Amino acid sequence: MHNFIMNFGYPALFVGSFLEGESFLIAAGFLAKRGYLDFNLVMLVALAGAYIGDVTLFFLGRNHGAKIISKFPQAMVYYPKAKNLFDRYGIWAIFFTRYLYGLRFASAALLGMMKMRRRRYLPFAFISCIIWAVVIGGLGYMFGASLEALIGQVSHYEKLVLVFIILIGLGVWWVRRTASKRKAEENIRIKEGSKG
Fold first, then answer.
1. CA end-to-end distance (rounded Å), the chain
2. Do 59 and 111 meet the contact criterion of CB atoms below 8 Å apart?
3. For 66-70, 135-139, 162-166, which range has the lowest pLDDT when averaged over its residues?
4. 3-class DSSP state for residue 117?
5. Residue 128: in which H helix or E strand, if any?
6. Centroid of chain to Cα 157
7. pTM
8. What mean pLDDT is reported for the chain?
9. CA 146, CA 33: separation in Å to the nearest integer?
10. Is-contact 28 13, C-beta < 8 A?
11. 13 and 42 in contact (C-beta within 8 Å)?
12. Burial class (CB within 10 angstroms; exposed 0-12, middle 13-18, buried 19+) of 165
């Protein structure tokens, strides 16, 4: 198991962080506490994945925003919410949209569409990614420490715990995705009904 995690843990964390994967980062924090991964490297990989994801979405929004929004009806569910938050709180909304499902993607693309200056967006996004990596990764690490305190020898259960963390993350993702898909379909029906 150790070799498998060493070979695939960091790449999986990078991809998960790029795609809004809190469960990946919590699992990586837990594995760092168990000694399978290096905690500092977990933070760096999560930071890199999240920041590259943000920057990619920002520039996609800047250059192809309207096309992207029109091709993904689900994005229309989050776009108005993200716009409302940025109208209300300005650039500071970057710091809390990261923790709201779907809004990280929508907010990064939205700020690109709004032609926010790169000099303004990039440092704020970087700082918010650092905070996110430390907070979420730290939660996974503390979860591992708490589990050790509660049940002692975690090594007998660590595979089960890891699978549980990932399944919970996937379950939350599926529920949210299903809800946003229904909302998007409902919005489309309402628009088509108003046209008729």
1. 59
2. no
3. 162-166
4. coil
5. helix 118-151
6. 27
7. 0.73
8. 76
9. 10
10. yes
11. yes
12. buried
**Around Cβ 169, how many Cβ atoms within 10 Å?**
18
For 27, the 3-state DSSP assignment is: helix
Gyration radius from the chain CA atoms? 19
Tokens matching residue 106: 């929508």
Q: In angstroms, what CA-CA distances link 82 with 5, 20, 186, 188?
A: 36, 16, 19, 19
Sign of CA dihedral 182, 187, 191, 196: positive
Written as one letter, the residue type at 120 is R
Rounded mean pLDDT, 152-172: 59
- For the record, the structure tokens of 100 come out as 């709201």
pLDDT digits (tens, 9 = 90+) for 116-157: 888 889 999 999 999 999 998 888 888 766 655 555 555 555
Average pLDDT over residues 63-75: 69
**Segment of 44-58, 81-95, 105-119 carrying the highest mean pLDDT:** 44-58
- Cα 116 versus chain centre, distance: 22
Residues in the chain: 196
State the sign of the Cα–Cα–Cα–Cα dihedral 15, 21, 23, 28.
positive
